[in-house]
Amino acid sequence: MAGQWSGAGATRSRQTGRPAAAALALLTLLTCCVRCAEPTGIKPSNIILILADDQDVELGGMTPMKKTKALIGDAGATFVNAFTVTPLCCPSRSSILTGQYPHNHEVRNNSLSGNCSSSLWQKGPESEAFPIYLNKQKYQTFFAGKYLNQYGKKDGGDVSHVPPGWDQWHALVGNSQYYNYTLSVNGKEEKHGDSYEKDYFTDLITNRSLHFLDDRSPQHPFFLMLSPPAPHSPWTAAPQYQKEFNTVKAPRDGSFDKPGKDKHWLLRQPVNPMPNSSLNFLDDAFRKRWQTLLSVDDMVETLLKKLESIKELNNTYIFYTSDNGYHTGSSLKHRPCSHHSGHLRGQPVCREHGRPVLPPPDGSLSA
Ligand SMILES: [Ca+2]
To answer: What Pfam family is a match for this entry (predicted)?
Structure first.
């Protein structure tokens, strides 16, 4: 991640467009959360990492998340020029977990043959991922949500495979879903249907994290990693949000529906100009993405209220970020995976309530 630092904790800033490792920078911050407290002998800070799926910044992906911006970004810091290591779910998530670039952890794409949650990954990089370090420091660790795209599949160790370092494990089998999915709950299969109250995945992640906080041991710090499906397809919003943003359309500025005749072969593939059916699809997808994020915004608010009620808010770092960006209509219609800046950029925000957020050494987040 390369970045210009902004927000309450900002002391210096630097403009740079050089993509570097968001994952490494995030790990540095996470590690510092632990190490800063070690010499004093006091209980280390708690850490919460919320990882959205395909949430862009260049299309205004944070716009619907007013509570998250106020409660985390405005109360802490926003990294306004941040880049993921690669714009694809599984390699990016593997980097976040290990701090390694894809050429080192060797997860090349979202398939098993591309090393996504493969046995090679499980025996190698996953056995050295950062939750193991936190667990050794007596952190109570909790995961809920989408892990890696091939996680839980039969050829990837099935649901019985629980990565090391996690005390509580509620991981989605496969790729993002909102209903009708399967979880591995501490290595046991748990199937879900389509009842909003029982099954809506973003809310289930929130509710289970609240239970974990109720059951935790107050003597030790905790680490929560919450990985909601939003705003990834199939873009299924909660019932109360399905009519929101009904006049919003995908942005028409920048490279929207521009011909790519003189560009890379990939950019030359879409039909140009786009037919009305494509434009309608993109506008619909854009609205639905924002609608799904409203439940994530609720998640952030609910969590912070919970932290306040259990008197842990003043000792908790909260990080919010995405595994990769996205685009709708900018030369490539709708996909997350190319190396154009819209797909690489997310906008991480973090907060440590009660103390200044630690600034990076030179105001950037270069790895
Ligand atoms: Ca993703």
So the answer is: Sulfatase
Beta bridge partners of 256: 330
Q: How far apart are CA 201 and CA 179, in angstroms?
A: 6
CA nearest 322: which of 129, 65, 13? 65
Residue 173 lies inside a defined structural domain of this protein: yes
**Which tokens go with 217?**
């041991």
Ligand 1 midpoint to CA 68 (Å): 19
Measured distance CA(136)–CA(311) in Å, rounded: 24
Using CA atoms, how far apart are residues 20 and 311, in angstroms rounded to an integer?
A: 36
In a domain, 331, yes or no: yes
Is 89 a residue of the active site? yes
Q: Is residue 109 part of a domain?
A: yes
Query: What is the rounded CA–CA span in Å between residue 176 and residue 229?
Result: 5
DSSP character for 146?
Answer: E
For the chain, the average pLDDT equals: 84
Going by their DSSP bridges, the two strands 222-227 and 5-7 should be labelled as: unpaired
Backbone angles phi, psi at 97, to 5 degrees: -75, -30
In a domain, 267, yes or no: yes
Asked if residue 178 has pLDDT above 70, the reply is: yes
The pTM for the full model equals 0.85
CA of 92 relative to ligand 1 center, distance in Å: 8
> Into how many domains does the chain fold?
1
- Cα(36) to ligand 1 centroid in Å equals 31
Give Cα 161 distance to the centre of its chain.
22
Q: Is residue 107 a contact partner of residue 126, using CB atoms and an 8 Å limit?
A: no
Q: How many CA atoms lie within 13 A of 133 on its CB side?
A: 15
Of 4-13, 181-190, 205-214, the one with minimum mean pLDDT is: 4-13
